[in-house]
Amino acid sequence: MPDTVTLPAFPLTAMMKSSTWLFPLVETVHIWGIVILVGSVVMFDLRVLGLSRGLPVRALARFLLPLSLGALLLVLPSGVLLFATQPEELLANRVFTIKLGLLFLAACNALAFHAGPYGSVATWDTGTRAPVLARVLAAASILIWLAVILCGRMLAYF
Description:
Strand content: under 5%
Helix content: over 70%
Distance between the termini: 25 Å
Oligomer: single chain
Shape: elongated
Order of helices and strands: HHHHHH
């Protein structure tokens, strides 16, 4: 097995490496997507944790889920483009592998929430405390996303 990863030389990747403005533009789009994604996730998680109990959880989910999915349309392609400019360095970077693991953990946590406690949301939608498992998963979600952001920032320094 080779020690390095080589990706095909895509024209856009080459342009990102040579352009003064394209890499920062793609990075900015990536950050905008992260802001929208993490912002909407944290707002939802804070509601599950008990803030604004008068606000129906299902109504908030109907509002925030499309924002989160739209943000993924910014984050995923821009992240792939950023990765494609330096795959060898990033794959060798422990912080990057931790970030990928945390992203996987965030996805598993979201699936556990929606497959588990969210199924009974009608009983705790408004004015009632969410079940313990829902609150644990919401707290874990916030912590995981904060760790993802921390790793993303640390990539510049490791």
